Amino acid sequence: MRFLKSDGRLIGVLLVLAITQLIGWGTIGLPPIIGRDLAADLGMSLPMVFAGTSTLYVTMGLCAPWLAKVFARHGARKVMMVGTVVSVPGFVLLFFARDPALYFAAWIVFGLAGSATLSTGAYIMLNEVAGRQAKSAIGALMLVTGLSSSIFWPATSFLNGLVGWRWTCLVYAAMLIVVSLPLYALAAPRRSVAKDKGPAPAKHADVPPVARSTFGLVVSAITLNAFVNFGLGAVFIELLRAEGLAPAQAIAFGSMLGVIQVSARGLDFLGGGRWDGITTGLVAGTALPVAMLLLMLSEGATWAVAVFILLYGAGSGAMAVARATIPLVFYDQAEFAKAMSMIALPLNLASALSPPLLAGLLTQFGSRSALGLTFVCSCATVLILVLLGRRRPSVAAAAANLSSAR
């Protein structure tokens, strides 16, 4: 946590991003809670409703390479302000939707806005302010943003019961304009690049270039885990209901997920940089297949569901940090942004494919088929991380050993 003491301005930036990211992710997390109402009102199947989230991620992935240049030219603050404004018409379209056409148009708008305002934009802003300390800053941000489902799932359920899902959309649109936009405009930092302290980083010529096969492994590990986490996150309530939980009980259990995820991210953050993204991924990634195997073999016992949420929440929470920081093991600050922009497309495509695929498996074949697929993907992720661990650059390994010795 030394970075908080060394740059007090970073605390304010983290506060702004914590609130705006919480709202950004929370307000678009509608399908897990109101998916059945959407399906009934719009004449759609449940997998088709979850395909709206897929449209979001595809749009975000396609926009990522173009927006990388916009971020570089104008800075994160301006881009995120524009993205916040763009997201409002998405909720308006959803309010007026009476058929699938307007429904999917709304998610395209959310994707355009999300590519500017959600995680990537936040990481770029932190890099502008924190420089080489961005890893710790990202971990700190994730401590709060992981609570989005715990806060907004119950809030969405309450608002849906009070005013219906259409007016809930307008409430969320107003929240973006009244809360997020002023925070970006008045409290977010203008274009500023941190001056890194400490010894100068090694010259690019001193560091061997990253092999394409290594980059392929990085992409594969991140993409497979994103498939699991984003897919299960979208159908989590339906998965718990398929295991025999009542709707209210499923929401109550599901709301615990965000708290557990944040707790796991907190343990990684308190590590103070003593381990890198690969180590975090290996430890956290192992918990995921164990959790899924337990739920598959338990026949829906309440105690097993609780243990599943604990293991899956801890593993997926820490893996979110690993996905954002594994590239830092292999790429310096200048190359990190380029690598992340290249990773964004397959990551978002996997995130887009998983919700409707898992929803389809869940509705057609039951929870065991969805859990089986995510189990295989999680095991593959762990194996790839083992291979990446053997390819750590010598510079990164030395830095990790030095941090551990402190």
Alpha carbon gap, first and last residue: 14 Å
How much of the residues is beta strand, in percent? under 5%
Q: Which word captures the global form?
A: globular
- Helix fraction? over 70%
Instruction: Briefly note the structural class of the backbone.
Output: mainly alpha
Mean of pLDDT: 82
Number of helices: 16
Radius of gyration: 20 Å
- Low-confidence stretches are 193-205, 395-406
Order of helices and strands: HHHHHHHHHHHHHHHH
User: For the report, how would you describe the main beta sheet?
Assistant: none
The total of beta strands comes to 0
Task: Give me a quick take on this structure.
This protein has helices at 2-6, 9-27, 31-42, 46-74, 76-96, 100-117, 119-130, 134-145, 148-187, 212-242, 247-270, 277-297, 302-330, 333-365, 367-389, 394-405. It has 406 residues and is mainly α.
How would you describe what is shown here?
By secondary structure, the protein is an all-alpha fold. It is built from 16 helices and no strands. Helix 8 runs antiparallel to helix 13 (302-330). The longest helix is centred in the middle third of the chain and has 40 residues, at 148-187. The chain starts with a helix and ends with a helix. Mean pLDDT is 82; it is low at 193-205 and 395-406.
